[in-house]
Amino acid sequence: MKNLIKLGFAALLSIHFTTATAQNKNTENENSLLWEVSGNGLSKPSYIAGTFHILCNKDFEIKPKTWKALHQAENFVMEINYTDQNEVLAMQKMMAADKKISEQLTPEEAKELDKLLADYGTSLKNVDSHSTQALYSLIATKAIPCPPNEVKMYEFELLTEALKNKKSVNGLEKVDDQINAIGQSYNLKEVISQLKLSNEYTIASQKMTEAFKNENLKSLDQLIKDPKFMNKKQEKLVLTDRNVKWAEKMPEIMKKQSSFFAVGSGHLWGNNGLITLLKAKGYTVKPVSNL
Predict the structure, then answer these.
(1) What digits encode the pLDDT tens for the residues 32-65?
(2) Nearest-angstrom CA–CA distance, 35 and 69
(3) Is the Cα dihedral 148, 180, 125, 123 positive or negative?
(4) Is residue 283 within 8 Å of residue 96, measured between CB atoms?
(5) Euclidean distance between CA atoms 109 and 123, whole angstroms
(6) What does each C-alpha distance from 205 to 142, 145, 156, 266 come to in angstroms?
(7) What is the model's pTM?
(8) How many other CB atoms sit within 10 Å of the CB of residue 137?
C-alpha cells in the first residue's frame, strides 16, 4: 500500500490570464512535448520536456529527440530532486498525519468512506493514519490501467540515463512545496469527492495517455484542467503558482549550464504555462520536432 501511494503521489504531481495571448496564437497548432529555450544571453540552448509521470509499459515511449536533448544538456532538472535523500525522507513523512482521517469525519461519513475505499482495494482502517495528500494519491493508482509491476515512471527513466551519463541533477522545488500545494487545494471533503470520480479519472487517464503519445499538448492541457477534477482555485495552487516560481528559478539554472527540464505536461501550456512565462522573460521558446 505504501508503494502504491508513493506511485500515486508522483503521478498527481504530476492559468488563464490575458498577458501573452499573441504568443499563444503562435504555438496553438504546434504539437510537441519537447521545447527548446534559447536567446536572452544563453550560450547554449536548454530544453523543457513535458512528461506523463506514470505510464503502463505498453504505452511507455521516450522519443529519440528527447533522449538526444537529454544527452546534449549538462544538467538534468526534475520537479523534485529524487537523488536527494532529504527529499525521499520528506516523501515518506508526507504519508503520515497528526490526526486520523476517521477523527475528522462523522460516523456516517467514515462508514461511507470505508465503503468507497473498498473500490480502491483498501479500507479506512488501512489508511486512517495517512495524510489527506496520501489519500488523494489513491486516485492515480486506480486510474492507471495496469498493475504496479507493469508501470514505468517517466522521470525516473530519464534520471537513470542522466546519472549514467554523469549529468548534474537538480530540482525546481521541494517535496514540501508539492505537499503544501495539494494540501491547500484539496481538503479532506474535497478529496473524498474526488475519490468518488474514479471512473471519470480512468476515462480521463486513457484520453491523456493517447494525447501524450500524440504529443497533443493542447488536448492534454484541456484534460488536466477539466473542472470536474480541478477548479480555478486548485488550478492556481497546483499549476499556476508553481509555474511562476519555476520560471523565476529557470533563468539562473540555464545561465550556469545547458539544462534539460522534465516537468509534468500540465505545466507547459496556457497563458501561465512555462512556455509563455519564459517567452515573456525574453527567451525564444520553440517546439522541437526532431534533433
Answers:
(1) 999 999 999 999 999 999 998 888 999 999 999 9
(2) 10
(3) negative
(4) no
(5) 13
(6) 10, 9, 20, 13
(7) 0.86
(8) 26
